[in-house]
Amino acid sequence: MSSIQTLRAIEILDSRGRPTLEVSCELAGGACASAQVPSGASTGKAEAVELRDGDASRHAGLGCRRAVSSVTGPIASALCGRELETQAAVDEMLIAVDGTADKSRLGANAILGVSIAAARAVAVERGVPFYEHLSEMIGESPRALPRLTINLFSGGRHAGGQVPIQDVLLVPASATTIDDGLAMVCAVYKAAAELIHSKYSVRLLTADEGGLAPPFAGVEAMLDDTVAAITAAGLRPGDDMGIAMDVAASHFYDGSRYFISTEPSTADDMIGQVSRWVRDYPIVSVEDPLAEDDWEHWPMIHAALGERALTVGDDLLCTNPARIRRAIETKSCNTLLLKVNQIGTLSEAAEALALARAANWHVTISARSGETEDCWLADLAVGWGADQIKVGSVTQSERLSKYNRLLAIEAATRLPVVDWPRAAVP
Questions:
Q1: Rounded to two decimals, what is the model's pTM?
Q2: Catalytic status, residue 209
Q3: Which of 18, 160, 187, 388 has the most neighbouring CB atoms within 10 Å?
Q4: Is 398 a domain residue?
């Protein structure tokens, strides 16, 4: 690759109206590309640290001008004009300049923006699609498109906590293309919107990631309405359309008990409850069914779910290689939810991916609740061979930009969608 000639950054707004940043990278050969950085609301304790301004008089302290200065100051001084032949070399330099274990000095948001913008600029220089360049980065070639997992109903921190769990998602199990999968999900979303208007007398109000958020009486009502919407759309629950859950249990855990209902629950209670949901509904995937530091009980819930549903680690793993190794050793889950901004650079995320693949895990590449209209995540999911992609619902431009990019990649490549076993009909 040509050396990096110029790095620029500006503060922009994400999908929640909160600041983030866009980084532009120009190479000495003239190729130029940019990247916009997402941000999470439901964050794990082990995530790399975003740099925020802390000025309460502006954006409630969430401004990103300090992160912008990290890019145009110390990062640009270290990288510009230096011969860095690989993505790994770029990322190693970023890590070294920051010098902290959690990227808190320069900010994971600043570091990630540079990491992705530099990679994109190299793809431009080479004249190849970004997904192809990302695939070559891990020594692979694109072979398939990820299976869609799309938000239908939301609760937890994404929707004001009207129910404790975070999301119920749709998995178009019988779809053989991205195009067909989106059409199926759009039909269910429309049916769900009509159902909640009739049942709850609510307007079409959506949560952070576009999911519908009526005042459910509880989690079972949320799941019952999901099945009802699938059926109303003329699809078969568990055959045409599976269900995925993001429990996000850390957010209703006090260190010893889970507050998922009116009475506190033990970890054993949670294992039993989640197992019943998987038994009673066509659930194919359960994310964060226990709290992120409840390591004692994660192997138990993974064993309880067995082959009936994927056990997905998000807050548990934080795309962190050390936590992934621990989860592999303890048999705590079998699916990595990969969020690049949890770890901070493409190279570190690639290490997390390699560990998951070596353990024969599934990998779901995920967006964040605070997203942008940048579509690089779709290229990442294709280039890195994700089994699933989790972007959000089929509304809001920051979500649709990723789905539309997947449609464009599908049209250009004619790649098949990853096969994934359908849920057994209860």
A1: 0.95
A2: yes
A3: 388
A4: yes
